[in-house]
Amino acid sequence: DTEVTQTPKHLVMGMTNKKSLKCEQHMGHRAMYWYKQKAKKPPELMFVYSYEKLSINESVPSRFSPECPNSSLLNLHLHALQPEDSALYLCASSQPGQTIAKNIQYFGAGTRLSVL
Amino acid sequence: SQQGEEDPQALSIQEGENATMNCSYKTSINNLQWYRQNSGRGLVHLILIRSNEREKHSGRLRVTLDTSKKSSSLLITASRAADTASYFCATALNQAGTALIFGKGTTLSVSS
């Protein structure tokens, strides 16, 4: 099973709402990632979790709050977002370590978020 | 900020033709990867080339790497309509290789 599952597929929220994006993988990967992708742009790294601990935060605003409750799950909690936060949010996973093959990341289909 | 810069930004070809897209990067790398993204979907890993490799093949894909020029190319031979997608090169942001930074991407359109 090489699948990363993201829910929901689409989300519309107001600027005062609180919502969460969910990501799940059962490949035994111990590194998980959140990326943000605007239309016609490449994915931009937001957060990296390695062995359930936050290892990289790419200066993401605090209105985005990641959480990794266990090795299979990754959440992104959203609060007081702005319209410019509307984007495709992608989750990915990989097996951390120095072996080059472990650099390969497996992506979910994404959550398309619209902030009104 | 992007590590890689792809060109062309967009490429339109007919089925059966070959498609070549290029990527340049800025810093030293351990490896370089290429990913494909169908419209509005997640990315799919295509191929990884190590810094000590010059060329690598996988099916209809051929990747080259020139570390002296900090550039890579992806060749798709005998293109099919199903190859229509965006293609991104990616390099690692960190030593562990766990954080990828993607190039701007090339949008390939293959018409039948």
Report on this model:
The complex is a heterodimer of chains A (116) and B (112). By secondary structure, chain A is mostly beta strands. Helices cover 0% and strands 55% of the residues of chain A. Chain A is built from no helices and eleven strands. In chain A, strands 2, 4, 5, 6, 9, 10 and 11 form a seven-stranded mixed sheet that branches. Chain A has a four-stranded antiparallel sheet with strand order 1-3-8-7, with no helix packed on it. In chain A, a hairpin with a 2-residue loop joins strand 5 and strand 6 (53-57). By secondary structure, chain B is mainly beta. Chain B contains no helices and eleven strands. Chain B is globular. The model of chain B has no long low-confidence stretch (mean pLDDT 91). Classes of the chains: A mainly beta (116), B mainly beta (112). Chains A and B meet through strand 5, strand 9 and strand 10 of A and strand 4, strand 5 and strand 10 of B.
Give the helix level of chain B as a range of percent.
Answer: under 10%
- The tally of helices of chain B reads 0
SSE sequence of chain B, one letter per element: EEEEEEEEEEE
Number of strands of chain A: 11
Largest interface: A-B, 33 and 28 residues
Largest sheet of chain A: 7 strands, mixed
Approximate strand percentage of chain A: over 45%
Shape of chain A: globular
The helix/strand class of chain B is: mainly beta
The span between the termini of chain B is 36 Å
Radius of gyration of chain B: 13 Å
- Sum up the overall morphology of chain B in one term: globular
Structural class by sheet pairing and helices of chain A: mainly beta
Give the C-alpha Rg of chain A: 14 Å
Average pLDDT of chain A works out at 92
What's the number of helices of chain A? 0
Q: Tell me about the largest β-sheet of chain B.
A: 6 strands, mixed
